[in-house]
Amino acid sequence: MKHVRYGLGAAAIALIAAGAANAQQGGPTLKTVKDRGTLLCTGHDGSYLGFAEVDDKGAWTGLDIDLCRAVATAVLGDPAKATIIPISWAQRWPALQSGEVDLVVKASGATLSRDAELGLQFSLSYYLGTTKIMAHKSLGLTSLADADGGTICIPAGTTQQQQIASYSEKLGVKLEPVLIEKTEELEQAYFSGRCDLYTQWGPVLAIARAAKGNVDEHDILPDVLALEPEVIVMRPGDDNWVDIANWTLSALWFAEQEGITSQNVDEIKADPPSPEVAKFLGVNPGMGTPLGLTDDWAYDVIKQMGNYAEIFDRNLGQGSPYKMDREMTALWKDGGVLYPYLID
Fold first, then answer.
1. Closest to 344 in 3D by CA, of 301, 298, 287, 294
2. Which H or E run contains 122?
3. Confidence check: pLDDT of 18 > 60
4. What is the pLDDT of residue 29?
5. Are 183 and 53 in contact (CB under 8 A)?
6. 151-155 and 197-201: which strand pairing?
7. Could you count the other beta carbons within 10 Å of the beta carbon of residue 266?
8. Predicted pLDDT at 200
């Protein structure tokens, strides 16, 4: 019997070497961003409380905004080199495809049509939330099944439109939709009584109800329309750019897992507790070169932006006006769904 050898041939080895060399140079989006000197990210055409808010002086805050700044720090070494561009829900995909923005970080769910039809690429999920419904308490509703004939405010141009249509059809409930794109106008329509119901991503409903200061007057119904993983969205054809988005998220989670914060990162870098942490913080080489970045990019991100827990806390959690719990958007070790990639 002839023995078969499974070793790599010279051509295969050369191909792998060429791929590694190209990876070290980075992809076209990375080159464009470096040459431009700023990262272009989506903001919101108003305020999406806790995720993308802008004050009267034009300063942006929010979870999505900070994730954009984390990528800017990874690539350019400075969160201030993120430029936030106000973009509506409907315009986020044309803006990405035209090159008006480099990333969409805008509470955007990973869906089949966005992947297979629009050809977009997704990062890991950075927030897992449910689509819910809020109702005026005075209506006495216990679930959406009680709301036949009611009016419902729905954010136009979002996945919630299809979710509420499918869910209400399943229940045999007919609702009159009120479609409004801007979140402020949508919430005004609901809180003024124009709509009986308001469907949104669950965190947004909870924040809106708390922000109005009349929590007891509104019920978030037990119905769950969908479980939606929020992702960073990118143009197709640039795997290096997807890698950079994913490894930036993973760095935030790895730092949280290892207890590395913006406050103690210098101390830990001076005396790393493991080879993995030493590589992560750039003490040992290899963290950045395969991505086309500097080896201390993760250190820069944690030093300037904090780990994921710090980012969450100041935008949505106990350090914010909204006092939200992490729930499913916690690390695996705390009962959540988030986990970092391995550093080897």
1. 287
2. strand 121-136
3. no
4. 98
5. no
6. parallel
7. 11
8. 92
Is the Cβ–Cβ distance between 324 and 207 less than 8 Å? yes
* Residue 265, pLDDT above cutoff 60: yes
| Of 97, 99, 103, 86, the residue nearest 41 (C-alpha) | 103
Q: pTM to 2 decimals?
A: 0.85
Integer Cα distance of 276 and 176 in angstroms: 55
| Residues facing 229 on adjacent strands | 128
Per-residue tokens: 205? 């409903």
**C-alpha distances in angstroms, 11 versus 2, 4, 19, 280?**
23, 18, 12, 33
Contact 280, 251 (CB under 8 A): yes
Tokens found for residue 188? 């005004």
Q: Are 325 and 319 in contact (CB under 8 A)?
A: no
Indicate the angle between helix axes 308-315 and 239-257, nearest 10 degrees: 90
CA angle 130, 136, 140 (to 5 degrees): 100
Q: What is the pLDDT of residue 327?
A: 86
Output 190 or 184, whichever has higher pLDDT.
190
How is residue 326 written in tokens? Answer: 């992490």
Are 313 and 304 in contact by the 8 Å Cβ rule? The answer is no
What is the rounded average pLDDT of the residues 11-38? 71
- Asked whether residue 232 carries a pLDDT value surpassing 60, the answer given is yes
The proportion of the chain whose per-residue pLDDT surpasses 90, expressed as a percent, equals 79
3-state secondary structure of 107: strand
200 phi and psi, to 5 degrees?
-165, 175
In 8-106, where does DSSP find H-type helix? 10-25, 28-36, 63-76, 92-98
Q: Average pLDDT, whole number, for the chain?
A: 92
Amino acid at 326: R
- How far lies 143's CA from each of 97, 147, 169, 218, 324, in Å? 40, 7, 14, 13, 23
Q: What is the Cα 299 distance to its own chain's centre?
A: 21
